[in-house]
Amino acid sequence: MTMALLSPESLKRIEREAAKYPPEQRQSAVMSALGIAQDQNGWLSNELMEEVATVLGMPPVWVYEVATFYNMYNLKPTGKYKVVICTNLPCALSGSVDAAHHLQHKLGLTGFNQTSADGRVTLKEGECFGACGDAPVMIVNNKRMCGRMTPEKLDRFLEEDLK
Ligand code: FES
Known about the structure:
single chain; about 160 residues; alpha+beta; Arc Repressor Mutant, subunit A; Glutaredoxin; 2 domains; five-stranded mixed β-sheet; 7 helices; binds FE2/S2 (inorganic) cluster
Protein backbone atom coordinates (compact mmCIF):
# COMPACT_ATOMS: atom_id res chain seq x y z
CA MET A 1 0.00 0.00 0.00
CA THR A 2 1.55 3.36 -0.99
CA MET A 3 0.77 6.34 1.16
CA ALA A 4 1.43 9.80 -0.20
CA LEU A 5 1.22 11.79 3.01
CA LEU A 6 2.02 9.56 5.95
CA SER A 7 5.76 9.09 6.26
CA PRO A 8 7.24 5.58 6.56
CA GLU A 9 8.06 6.43 10.18
CA SER A 10 4.46 7.45 10.94
CA LEU A 11 3.17 4.32 9.21
CA LYS A 12 5.46 2.22 11.34
CA ARG A 13 4.25 3.93 14.50
CA ILE A 14 0.60 3.48 13.48
CA GLU A 15 1.21 -0.22 12.77
CA ARG A 16 2.73 -0.58 16.22
CA GLU A 17 -0.43 0.92 17.76
CA ALA A 18 -2.76 -1.18 15.59
CA ALA A 19 -0.87 -4.33 16.58
CA LYS A 20 -2.06 -3.83 20.16
CA TYR A 21 -5.53 -4.95 19.05
CA PRO A 22 -6.84 -8.12 17.38
CA PRO A 23 -6.77 -7.72 13.55
CA GLU A 24 -10.53 -7.19 13.32
CA GLN A 25 -10.27 -4.31 15.81
CA ARG A 26 -7.46 -2.31 14.19
CA GLN A 27 -9.79 0.69 14.17
CA SER A 28 -9.41 0.95 17.93
CA ALA A 29 -6.04 2.55 17.22
CA VAL A 30 -7.70 5.50 15.49
CA MET A 31 -7.02 8.05 18.23
CA SER A 32 -3.34 7.16 18.48
CA ALA A 33 -3.10 7.06 14.69
CA LEU A 34 -4.57 10.55 14.40
CA GLY A 35 -2.12 11.75 17.05
CA ILE A 36 0.78 10.30 15.07
CA ALA A 37 -0.45 11.87 11.83
CA GLN A 38 -0.80 15.21 13.60
CA ASP A 39 2.66 14.94 15.17
CA GLN A 40 4.05 14.51 11.68
CA ASN A 41 2.08 17.22 9.91
CA GLY A 42 1.02 19.67 12.63
CA TRP A 43 -2.65 19.38 11.62
CA LEU A 44 -5.05 16.89 10.07
CA SER A 45 -6.13 17.57 6.50
CA ASN A 46 -8.98 15.53 4.98
CA GLU A 47 -6.46 13.70 2.82
CA LEU A 48 -4.37 12.77 5.84
CA MET A 49 -7.43 11.48 7.67
CA GLU A 50 -8.37 9.44 4.60
CA GLU A 51 -4.96 7.81 4.70
CA VAL A 52 -5.43 6.99 8.37
CA ALA A 53 -8.79 5.41 7.45
CA THR A 54 -7.17 3.34 4.73
CA VAL A 55 -4.36 2.14 7.00
CA LEU A 56 -6.82 1.09 9.69
CA GLY A 57 -9.35 -0.34 7.21
CA MET A 58 -12.23 1.84 8.32
CA PRO A 59 -14.62 4.28 6.60
CA PRO A 60 -13.13 7.82 6.43
CA VAL A 61 -16.30 9.27 7.97
CA TRP A 62 -15.58 7.44 11.23
CA VAL A 63 -12.13 8.98 11.31
CA TYR A 64 -13.57 12.49 10.73
CA GLU A 65 -16.07 11.90 13.52
CA VAL A 66 -13.32 11.10 16.00
CA ALA A 67 -11.13 13.97 14.79
CA THR A 68 -13.94 16.51 15.08
CA PHE A 69 -15.12 15.26 18.48
CA TYR A 70 -11.87 15.74 20.38
CA ASN A 71 -10.30 19.14 20.52
CA MET A 72 -6.71 17.88 20.71
CA TYR A 73 -6.88 17.35 16.97
CA ASN A 74 -6.15 20.33 14.75
CA LEU A 75 -8.33 20.42 11.68
CA LYS A 76 -6.63 23.58 10.43
CA PRO A 77 -3.00 24.66 10.56
CA THR A 78 -2.25 26.20 13.95
CA GLY A 79 0.38 28.58 15.24
CA LYS A 80 3.73 27.26 16.42
CA TYR A 81 2.20 26.83 19.86
CA LYS A 82 -1.34 25.63 20.45
CA VAL A 83 -2.49 26.78 23.86
CA VAL A 84 -5.69 25.20 25.17
CA ILE A 85 -7.09 26.74 28.30
CA CYS A 86 -9.63 24.88 30.42
CA THR A 87 -12.82 26.91 30.79
CA ASN A 88 -14.88 24.34 32.70
CA LEU A 89 -16.53 25.56 35.86
CA PRO A 90 -13.86 24.79 38.49
CA CYS A 91 -11.20 26.52 36.39
CA ALA A 92 -13.58 29.32 35.38
CA LEU A 93 -14.27 30.01 39.06
CA SER A 94 -10.54 30.07 39.74
CA GLY A 95 -9.46 32.56 37.13
CA SER A 96 -9.42 30.82 33.75
CA VAL A 97 -11.78 33.36 32.20
CA ASP A 98 -9.47 36.19 33.27
CA ALA A 99 -6.44 34.21 32.12
CA ALA A 100 -8.06 33.68 28.71
CA HIS A 101 -8.89 37.38 28.38
CA HIS A 102 -5.38 38.29 29.42
CA LEU A 103 -3.89 36.01 26.78
CA GLN A 104 -6.27 37.23 24.12
CA HIS A 105 -5.41 40.83 24.92
CA LYS A 106 -1.66 40.15 24.86
CA LEU A 107 -1.87 38.21 21.61
CA GLY A 108 -4.21 40.65 19.87
CA LEU A 109 -7.01 38.10 19.55
CA THR A 110 -10.73 38.73 19.90
CA GLY A 111 -11.69 35.21 20.97
CA PHE A 112 -10.80 31.54 20.91
CA ASN A 113 -9.77 29.51 17.86
CA GLN A 114 -7.65 32.35 16.56
CA THR A 115 -3.93 32.58 15.84
CA SER A 116 -1.77 35.59 16.67
CA ALA A 117 -0.78 37.68 13.66
CA ASP A 118 2.85 36.51 13.94
CA GLY A 119 1.72 32.87 13.64
CA ARG A 120 3.13 32.08 17.05
CA VAL A 121 0.16 31.12 19.21
CA THR A 122 -3.26 29.60 18.55
CA LEU A 123 -5.60 29.90 21.51
CA LYS A 124 -8.37 27.38 22.11
CA GLU A 125 -10.62 26.51 24.97
CA GLY A 126 -10.83 23.01 26.34
CA GLU A 127 -12.56 20.72 28.78
CA CYS A 128 -11.37 19.67 32.23
CA PHE A 129 -7.86 18.20 32.14
CA GLY A 130 -8.35 16.59 35.54
CA ALA A 131 -6.02 19.07 37.19
CA CYS A 132 -8.64 21.39 38.64
CA GLY A 133 -6.64 21.88 41.85
CA ASP A 134 -4.07 23.78 39.76
CA ALA A 135 -6.60 26.06 38.10
CA PRO A 136 -6.41 27.92 35.86
CA VAL A 137 -4.87 25.16 33.76
CA MET A 138 -3.70 25.09 30.17
CA ILE A 139 -1.96 22.65 27.85
CA VAL A 140 0.62 23.62 25.27
CA ASN A 141 0.83 21.57 22.07
CA ASN A 142 -1.25 18.77 23.64
CA LYS A 143 1.64 17.77 25.88
CA ARG A 144 2.81 20.28 28.40
CA MET A 145 0.43 21.14 31.23
CA CYS A 146 0.78 24.50 32.99
CA GLY A 147 -1.15 25.34 36.14
CA ARG A 148 -1.96 28.31 38.35
CA MET A 149 -1.62 30.68 35.43
CA THR A 150 -1.92 34.12 37.00
CA PRO A 151 -1.57 37.15 34.72
CA GLU A 152 2.07 37.62 35.91
CA LYS A 153 2.87 34.01 35.18
CA LEU A 154 1.20 34.28 31.80
CA ASP A 155 3.32 37.27 30.88
CA ARG A 156 6.49 35.38 31.77
CA PHE A 157 5.24 32.33 29.96
CA LEU A 158 4.57 34.33 26.77
CA GLU A 159 8.00 35.94 26.90
CA GLU A 160 10.10 32.96 27.91
CA ASP A 161 8.33 29.78 26.85
CA LEU A 162 6.43 30.69 23.72
CA LYS A 163 9.28 32.25 21.77
S1 FES B 1 -11.99 22.21 35.47
FE1 FES B 1 -10.14 22.87 34.61
S2 FES B 1 -8.79 21.21 34.86
FE2 FES B 1 -10.64 20.56 35.73
